[in-house]
Design goal:
With 313 residues, this protein is α+β, with helices and mostly antiparallel strands. It has helices at residues 49-63, 80-91, 107-120, 122-127, 170-176, 200-204, 214-226, 258-262; strands at residues 13-24, 28-29, 35-36, 44-47, 128-131, 138-141, 144-146, 149-154, 158-164, 180-198, 238-249, 265-271, 274-277, 295-299, 308-312. Strands 1, 4, 7, 8, 9, 10, 11 and 15 form an 8-stranded antiparallel sheet that branches. Strands 13-12-14 form a 3-stranded antiparallel sheet, with no helix packed on it. Strands 2-3 form a two-stranded antiparallel ribbon. Strand 5 and strand 6 form a beta hairpin. It is flat and about 70 Å long. 34% of the residues are buried.
Length: 313
């Protein structure tokens, strides 16, 4: 069995992730013709937690290639039942195919199957997984949770017409002179904010814990700061992490409520040397934000609850 750093994360964490997009589509909605995701009541842009986890997984795969304990379970082209069979082969090599449809009656052996998956797959340790798809390797609740990212101000997606010089078929070439039309959806600029949570008990509990270690946590924060640098595409324009604000608790259960800590991080608008809260009357006639310099991220370190440490990246 592959192993990572022993034990699990022993202290609770929360974090705020800020990233932006310029002339790109950060997360298309397949139910809306791949338009950028949008809250229809506020017109604020959205990026799903699934999209963010995909980028984190992709970064880990790049940063730890062929490293024991850092495989990715949810990856493109993976057959999940084959990965479950690997766990059965390692833990119970004499098991028959019909035996693999349900967990062993021996509770210790069943836990060993799930622990094998946690030990070998970084994203199972981090995000958890339901591994009961025909070949049963159990299920585990991961210590890392991410919410949807939301733009700090309303966005106005644009639909851009584009042309292609090459035709798909000979008929298209004859009918359209070799040119075809297409459409591209972009956000001119948007700064997005997402909240994340790290549960120490779900990482380090002797039975329910996944074994998500401090080294795994450091890799997560590394991924959050660098994941967009390795996810370039014409469709996504220019995306970049702008800041990660981490709240580190002194205990496993935590020393303050998450919402009170998130409230210490705010974004303000900046224009020609003036800085005001978003939505303030003074900003009514300001032009729309078009780059990160139009915002300021403010972290209030005053009156921090005892046992809370703030780390900015």
């Amino acid at each position: 069995m592959a192993t990572t750093e022993s034990g699990g994360v022993s202290r609770r964490h929360e974090f705020v992730l800020f990233f932006d997009v310029t002339n790109g589509n950060p997360n298309g909605d397949p139910d809306a013709g791949n338009l950028p995701r949008l809250d229809p009541e506020t017109n604020r842009g959205l990026v799903s937690d699934v999209a963010l986890k995909r980028k984190i997984r992709n970064y880990v795969a790049l940063a730890r290639p062929d490293s024991p304990g850092y495989e990715i379970y949810m990856r493109e082209g993976a057959t999940l039942n084959n990965e479950h069979k690997r766990a059965w082969t390692a833990v119970a090599p004499d098991a028959k195919p019909e035996d693999m449809k349900r967990l062993p009656k021996d509770e210790a052996k069943a836990r060993e199957l799930t622990r094998w998956m946690c030990a070998n797959f970084w994203d199972v340790r981090a995000f958890g997984a339901v591994m009961t798809t025909g070949v049963n390797a159990g299920q585990v609740r991961g210590p890392i949770q991410l919410g949807f990212a939301q733009s700090v101000e309303p966005i106005l997606p644009l639909e851009i017409s584009i042309t292609r010089m090459a035709a798909t078929t000979e008929a298209d070439a004859e009918a359209k002179g070799g040119r075809t039309m297409g459409r591209k959806h972009i956000v001119p600029y948007g700064l997005y904010r997402a909240h994340g949570f790290v549960s120490a008990p779900l990482a380090s509990h002797p039975v329910k814990g996944t074994g998500f270690s401090d080294a795994d946590l450091e890799l997560l924060f590394e991924a959050l700061t660098q994941m967009f640098d390795h996810d370039r595409s014409a469709a996504r324009g220019e995306m970049a992490t702008r800041k990660v604000v981490i709240f580190r608790h002194a205990s496993a259960l935590g020393n303050a409520q998450a919402q009170s800590l998130f409230g210490k991080v705010r974004v303000e608008r900046v224009h020609q040397g003036s800085q005001h809260p978003i939505g303030a009357p003074e900003t009514d006639n300001w032009p729309p934000a078009r780059n990160f310099a139009d915002y300021a991220i403010v972290v209030n370190r005053d009156s921090l609850p005892e046992g809370i440490e703030i780390v900015e990246r």
